[in-house]
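Final report, closing paragraph on structural work. Over the funding period we assembled a curated collection of sequence-structure pairs, and we close with a single example.
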Amino acid sequence: MTAFQRFITASGMTNLADGIAVVAWGWIASLLTRDALLVALVPVALRLPWALLALPAGLVTDRVDRRRLILAMDALRATAFLFAAAALWLALPLAPAPTEGVSAPALYVALLVAALTVGGAEVFRDNAAQTMLPALVPQERLERANGQLWSAELLTNALIGPALGAFLIGLWLPLAFGLNAVAYGLALFLVAGLAGQFRATRTDRRGWKAELAEGLTFLRGLPLLKTLAWTTGFWNLFHQMIVIGVVLHAQENLGLSAQAYGLTLAGGAVGGIAGSLLGDRIARSLGPVRTMQWMLALSGPCFLGMALAPGAWTLGLCFAAMEFSGFVWNVVSVSTRQRLIPDALLGRVNSLYRLLAWGMMPLGLVLSGLVVSLGELFLPRGTALLLPFCAAGLGSLVVTALVWGGIARGFAGISR
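Its predicted structure, as stored:
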């Protein structure tokens, strides 16, 4: 097995665990409370570290062996999931979820702590993993390598993981978190066996402020990267609005079981895998500018379509189209970033980029809960649960119109 194959397989293992947890976090929170804002706070805790820790993660990534950083963070995530499984086991059987407040406050707090820990470790782990990839494959193969990596991640994270997570929830609730430790253990074994040089090429250090300023100066000097970062940030905000909104929408408006909900999310995985595998070919056929413009334009109708979907199959098709467009965008966006940023700066610039791109996720989750809560003051609950999809769809169309020309100008600037 080559180093790149070991890397892909390890990423698949950790993403299998994350895919199981995708269903578990929101679904188990909904068993403790029916308050949309309180349900949203659990995935908020999972995403909040991206806004708080992205910059430190970039500095650390450029200072240490990136392979060892990945090992440490995967071990920490395994411990956090074991903690969540134990807390859930001790709290069983669960009382019926109230419309206000939570039925098991200690368990709810334990879930928040575990989510914060997992999310914090993920910031460091993912930043290190993205900076390692250029050391494993030649630059001319980055689009293909990123596509292969994401297709493997999606197969486990969004196709197998949610379905398995839904099955485990139905079998015994603590299994949804406990099995993740096994997946992380396998990933640790695979990454530990990687051979190669995974430190940044630069060895001189000038203090964290100077090093961070160096990364910020580089990012500011490339308008394309700034445009892509802000665009990805708003897309992630809208995506998180519908991710938390769909949990209650699926339960209350569509009457889906945990298993049906997991299979609906799996529809998104099919679209994402197709986008990851075809992204390189589409980019070569249409060019990076038109590829990114049209993939972004497709997102708005997908978000709006989810509000109109009458059942699991149509909702799954909307997810598939949304994830297809999103991952074709990512193949071009991330490969462009990896190619433009020097290895010595890759961790810091990548973290600054992801601070903008991922730091807006918690805001999207909070906005989803607030939109529903405010909507219930004027509308029936079933209608209020559709508002996050409408807001995400309209917002995505506005962003598309605003950055359409900026994407073209940005690529023209780097080609000169």
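The chain has 15 helices and no strands. The chain has a mean pLDDT of 86. We thank the funder for supporting this effort.
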